[in-house]
Amino acid sequence: MDLYKYTASELSRMLIKKETSAKEIAESCFKRTDEVEKDVEAYITLNREEALKQAEKADERIKNGSASSPLDGIPLAVKDNMCTEGIKTTCASKILYNFIPPYDATVVKKIKDAGMVITGKANCDEFAMGSSTETSYYKKTKNPHDITRVPGGSSGGSAASVAAGEVPLSVGSDTGGSIRQPSSHCGVVGLKPTYGSVSRYGLIAFASSLDQIGPFSRSIEDAAMLADVIYGHDPLDSTSAPDARIGAGNFAKRLNPDVKGLKIGLPKEYFGLGVSDEVKSAVMNAVSIYEKLGAKVFEISLKLVKYALPVYYIISSAEASSNLARFDGVKYGYRSSDYDGLVDLYVKSRSEGFGKEVQRRVMLGTYVLSSGYYDAYYNKGRLAQRAIKQEFSDAFSDCDLILTPVTPNTAFRFGEKSGDPVQMYVEDICTVSVNIAGIPAIAMPCGKGEGELPVGVQLIGKHFDEQTILNAGLALEKELDLKNWVADVRKA
Amino acid sequence: MAITKKEIEHVAKLARLDSSGGVFDTLSADMQSIVAMVDTLQELDLSAMEDSVDLSRKNVFRSDEVLSSFPRDKILKNAPSQEAGGVSVPKIVE
Known about the structure:
A: alpha/beta; 11 strands; globular; B: mainly alpha; two-stranded antiparallel sheet; 3 helices; 2 strands; 33% helix; flat
């Protein structure tokens, strides 16, 4: 079997047993990339030469018995909104078309310290704003399970690269579902960590009170292994939690698929929301598997879910309008060539450099923060955020995890929703409340819909209780034949 | 509530965006439907909730130490225009 078809944990074991080398693994991944990338277009920038050098260094370490981590020598793609020293970081925007970061994001540093091999920068929606990766200034990433469909977004390149076998692992960021929704559409595992678990230093900020970086993989064990690398306190991120709470470094070795007696809540409201029959039936199949394994599944109610979307768009756009003020054509990135004075330089550089969706969000954010509207929108949004958080916290007094669909439908076609922003925003209906509450959630494949398209299930956990959802994910993975699902890259 | 053309122009000015630019042709219409969507929040009655700060939260401080900074040349490499060790912008004072 070609090396690119293995999971990261299998490759890790093969490296330890010296059955293969990091260089061979990287070469196999790049060969696969050469074969499929013209159809998938998952990457904005490839880092081939440097990656092969890093793989050789990993082989030296492994040979000398001084591997840096269990993932030493394993290739990984990084979403293009995380700073990589010396590698162009565009955020999929024209405004950062030539930005070469002078430093590494903390996550990137941790990845390098673990000996992992960075294969390139993955495409995404511009500034991570979108649910289809169609707002990227550079290219449209395709869903490897049907290249006429979107991979989801915003971390569409991170999800598609893993699903297509271009790389066994990647990292993305999740502000309202940007890891989980593309995971679901591409049939891979995606973990959105508890807020404060993974440093955002060097992540180009979208909505700072919601953004989290997390792993993509083709198995639960792989997700746990990568979480072990990237989790942890960072003094450079003031929202970073203490290590004692985060529980970093221990997820993989504590994996345990025993779900007997596990209390699983099914919020009935999440099964309305326009969820299609094919998604419902795959998700309910996961539920019956848990029941068979001895978990206690019962219905719960989370009534505020219907307000999660407006709350999310108010808070995230408000924060985005403030965070994106730094892109002004002065210090880095795109500067308009034709302007009359300083303010005109700002206005022209921003209007020419930002795409339409980014301008929409900046406009909405500025509007809800502007004098006269602040109380009605932003303040009310913050209050509603607390109410949603409280509702989850009450629900978790009765259950250990909450199970829901990830998206109402399987992957949609290009252009199907890009004309109507509100219809696109509804894609995130099942995922946004998790960010609002700051809790962790996994999306993983649980079935196939029409056209063999992946359907995902979302397992939501308590604050800092990633272990429970990883364990439950492992239990489900063992019962389904969807682990390590490498897509054929085809037109359905 | 509907958002007027004048409001859109005002907000664009605050956001340093050009409201006469091409994307604003459709963006004005999009804003109506987006604002209508976020307006559904107004149905939610939160009058019983106090708008207060959560005092159980603790600030996380790090010690106030001087650490090494980035070399000036490295940072300036990304500047669209530079002069005399700084980024340069159009003249703002006569």
